[in-house]
Design goal:
The chain is of the alpha+beta class and 135 residues long. It has one domain. 42% of the residues lie in helices and 23% in strands. The chain is built from 5 helices and 4 strands. A 4-stranded antiparallel beta sheet has the order 1-4-3-2. β2 and β3 form a beta hairpin. The protein is globular, with a radius of gyration of 17 Å. The relative contact order is 0.17. The N terminus is likely disordered.
Amino acid sequence: MSKSTEMEPRATPSVLGLVSDVLKNRLEAFLNDSRKRKNTVMLSSNGLANRIIIERWGIRPSQRKQYSTLFSDVRRHCRKYFRHLAAGRRFCWKSSSGSYTMGVFKFDEVRGNLILRFVMPQKGEEWIVPTTQEP
């Protein structure tokens, strides 16, 4: 076993539980940025995993080979969470700055990297996210 593998951080359940919090923070930052007036945000599961790893351990994506197990575990969990969001087609949360509702749509999946499109409804318009129907 190499030295880097012995010292590699582990993706514990508490760390994996941060996925939804980091996603909410990313979306809130985008929505509250007055310079950006778009209603659509695209985020990738790998990008979210990279953000979690940088915030938690300070490990950059360029160090992916050295910490392959950590990146693999966190990315796998982010993909699973993104698939769950895409199946629900709606993402709602409350925070100190307000309550938010966004539609969630699968945009693309490339080599295991799931890309979702988060859509903010227009103010003053009736907006309903369609639910999937069981056959």
